[in-house]
Design goal:
With 186 residues, the chain is an alpha+beta fold. It has one domain: RlpA-like domain (Barwin-like endoglucanases, Beta Barrel), CATH 2.40.40.10. Helices cover 19% and strands 26% of the residues. It is built from 3 helices and 8 strands; from the N terminus they run αβββββββαβα. Strand 1 and strand 2 form a beta hairpin. The longest helix has 18 residues.
């Protein structure tokens, strides 16, 4: 080849190779994580009163195990293992009918009502986030909640893949469930 064609081809190849480096897997080489911007700037979910999704709160069976979700908001607190899900499910439909957004502060839970809100605290580092429950899962007996990539990132366990956490339902102020919870403490 003569003229600028070889130089242009080489330049195009180099630019393509450099672009591929920036589009690769996210933090720590995890293939399921994004190469996103500043995840620290994403705010926690803001609890608000929402009607429960009737189609997402009925009894169901997953992997041979039967689950009966709460039919109303009520106090809930449990310790166990949290995991996260990312790119593989990004944009796919959740149990609520919403699209999964790995950059949102959301979670999947087997029995908490959809939608509802929960505070999740990483027991090893004390970090805490508020998420909106809009999906079902995890369906592994040892896990109690699946978090969005961003929630796991903010809790500090993306690279580990899972962490010991405490999950506590957040009850809207003024709700009957919140009044019952407060009365039980007294």
């Amino acid at each position: 080849m003569k003229g600028p064609a070889p130089a242009l081809l080489l330049a195009a190849f180099m630019l393509t190779a450099l672009a591929a480096c920036t589009l690769g897997p996210g933090r720590g080489g995890h293939e399921d994580g994004p190469g996103a911007g500043n995840l620290d700037r994403i705010a926690d979910a803001r609890p608000r009163s929402e009607p429960l999704n009737p189609g997402a709160n009925g009894p169901y069976t997953a992997l041979g195990r039967k689950y009966v979700p709460y039919q109303s908001l009520k106090p809930y607190r449990q310790r166990g293992i949290a995991s996260w899900y990312g790119r593989k499910f990004h944009g796919k439909s959740t149990s609520s009918g919403e699209r999964y957004d790995m950059y949102a502060m959301t979670a999947a839970h087997t029995i908490l009502p959809i939608p509802s809100y929960a505070r999740v605290t990483n027991l090893s580092n004390g970090r805490s986030v508020v998420v909106r429950v809009n999906d079902r899962g995890p369906f592994h007996p040892e896990r109690i909640i699946d978090l969005s990539y961003t929630a796991a990132y903010k809790l500090g366990f993306v690279n580990a893949g899972s962490a010991q956490v405490e999950v506590e339902a957040i009850l809207p102020r003024g709700s009957a469930a919140a009044r019952e919870s407060t009365a039980a403490v007294r």
